[in-house]
Task: inverse folding
């Protein structure tokens, strides 16, 4: 090989060789220039043994901690150059459940306080340098696991892939031995970076996850230039400026909402929607601007809308945009919002009254591992309109986690041999997962119930880590407040708007039938012997899920 050929090849390499000088500096190449490490110029290469005295590190975590401890009060910028490879920000083989710090709700891989910080990938493309984790809510973590928590201001990154591979396969073409299968198929909240400072800039970076992507969210001013995003719902930075970026949207609401002052702005972007039907921008109204953007879709009849209930106070504009090559322009919202009344709160009723209803908040025994408390100083139920999948439906809606309602027969001493009950309900979750997360969130509906001892039988709808578009159902026994399953759990895909639950107790047998008027071909029937048949005739409904978009509208209850 000729010398000039060798020189050209070496010039193309982002990282050539590291030469340690007498003053403990390491020389490396970046964009054709030789640079030397120092306190403000750190180098990361996991193929080398890290030597802090040379400002050479084998892990990004170690380099960030060094910058945090040694450069946090400096006015100079600290640059961290990263050689091509996959860098795990949290050990993917450690089976310990990641938990948030006391007083916090989010577990982080690392928290960084330093300001004036740059992360720079030394590969030929952003795919060459991957910062990775694979933890998510209920899948290796208690909470919405997040890779980074940046507390400083003026933070930049370039030429890097940031990926939470909890529900996405990690594929690394430069070295397939570094590939890793996703943790689980069921999609859960798995986040990248939450920011507490201001002024963030990301150039030629890739952000890979699904639910709650959170690519550097929280800062008031965040600029993304020539970046790529893969996500589902509640995912993007609501104060972001997106210039010449590319997106693959796997569901219909990439923003929960946007900053109500600055909004989110897309300029000269390419957006591909995997949604069938209608692609919304936000779940809750917020300003969005799209200029010279090109939408493409797998659905030739796709419609694009701002959100289900756009607020005319929020500036939403679309200019010079196309959908599958055809011009598209959404009108700026001007019509007043449809009237949405606040919930009519029902009076708290904690007492058990024969012939009456108990409306209170209760924390069941099997939720004690989860950090929330029953609060009976405020109402747990209200008469209200549902949202999302239950929009336009009115009924009893949970106003706080742990909302419970019970009916006590007027003559508690009378023996009841048979009992029937029909409950119609509309869950707010459109996809059928029913609840906000798989953290002990369920709905129990019971008959043959003693409201004083909490003893009886019923059906449970629960979100589990196994499904992201379905719930699990099973029959349960309550015995003095202790709860156990008495049937084999099965997947249920019809816990959506139009759901109907029929409970029947005959002799020593409890039967539950679950159907849905919108899915006439699907019916679930669960049957079990009642281990300890009782003569009680009360009713019990317990909801331990989140409220708002995770609530369930109880439309009607008929007890016989």
Result:
């Amino acid at each position: 090989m000729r010398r000039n050929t060798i020189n050209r090849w070496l010039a193309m390499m982002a990282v050539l060789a590291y030469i340690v000088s007498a003053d403990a500096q390491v020389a490396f190449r970046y964009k054709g220039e030789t640079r030397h490490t120092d306190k403000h110029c750190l180098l990361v290469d996991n193929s080398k043994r890290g030597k802090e005295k040379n400002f050479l590190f084998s892990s990004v975590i170690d380099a960030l901690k060094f910058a945090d401890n040694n450069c946090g009060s400096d006015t100079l910028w600290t640059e961290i150059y990263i050689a091509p490879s996959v860098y795990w920000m949290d050990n993917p083989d450690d089976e310990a459940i990641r938990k948030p710090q006391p007083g916090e709700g989010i577990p982080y891989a690392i928290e960084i306080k330093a300001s004036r910080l740059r992360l720079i990938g030394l590969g030929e493309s952003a795919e060459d340098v991957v910062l990775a984790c694979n933890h998510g809510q209920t899948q290796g973590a208690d909470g919405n696991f997040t890779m980074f928590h940046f507390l400083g201001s003026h933070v930049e990154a370039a030429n890097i892939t940031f990926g939470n591979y909890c529900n996405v396969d990690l594929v690394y073409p430069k070295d397939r031995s570094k590939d890793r299968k996703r943790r689980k198929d069921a999609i859960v909240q798995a986040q990248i970076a939450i920011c507490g400072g201001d002024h963030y800039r990301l150039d030629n970076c890739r952000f890979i996850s699904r639910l709650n992507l959170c690519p550097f969210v929280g800062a008031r001013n965040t600029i993304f230039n020539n970046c790529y995003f893969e996500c589902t719902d509640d995912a993007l930075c609501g104060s972001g400026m997106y210039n010449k970026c590319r997106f693959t949207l796997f569901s219909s609401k990439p923003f929960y909402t946007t900053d109500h002052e600055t909004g989110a702005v897309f300029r000269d972007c390419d957006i591909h929607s995997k949604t069938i039907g209608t692609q919304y921008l936000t779940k809750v109204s917020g300003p969005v601007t799209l200029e010279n953007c090109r939408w493409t879709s797998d659905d030739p009849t796709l419609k694009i809308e701002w959100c289900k209930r756009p607020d005319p106070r929020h500036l939403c504009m679309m200019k010079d945009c196309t959908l599958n090559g055809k011009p598209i322009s959404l009108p700026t919202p001007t019509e007043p919002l449809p009237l949405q009344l606040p919930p009519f709160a029902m009076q708290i009723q904690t007492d058990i009254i024969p012939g009456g209803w108990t409306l209170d908040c209760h924390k069941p025994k099997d939720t004690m591992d989860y950090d929330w408390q029953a609060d009976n100083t405020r109402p747990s139920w209200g008469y209200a309109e549902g949202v999302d999948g239950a929009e336009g439906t009115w009924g009893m809606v949970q106003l706080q986690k742990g909302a419970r309602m019970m009916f006590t027969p007027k003559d508690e001493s009378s023996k009841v041999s048979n009992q029937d009950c029909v409950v119609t309900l509309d869950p707010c979750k459109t996809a059928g997962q029913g609840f906000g997360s798989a953290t002990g969130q369920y709905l129990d509906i019971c008959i043959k119930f003693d409201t004083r001892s909490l003893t009886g039988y019923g059906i449970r709808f629960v979100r589990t880590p196994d499904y992201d578009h379905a719930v699990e159902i099973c029959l349960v026994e309550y015995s003095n407040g202790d709860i156990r399953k008495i049937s084999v759990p099965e997947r249920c895909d019809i816990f959506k708007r139009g759901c109907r639950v029929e409970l029947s107790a005959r002799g020593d047998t409890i039967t539950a039938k679950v159907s849905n008027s919108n899915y006439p071909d699907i019916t679930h029937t669960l049957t079990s012997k009642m281990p300890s048949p009782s003569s009680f005739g009360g009713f019990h409904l317990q909801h331990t899920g989140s409220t708002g978009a995770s609530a369930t509208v109880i439309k009607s209850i008929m007890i016989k």
The mean pLDDT is 93. The longest helix spans residues 60-70. The CA atoms of residues 352 and 452 lie 7 Å apart. The chain is about 5% helix and 40% strand.
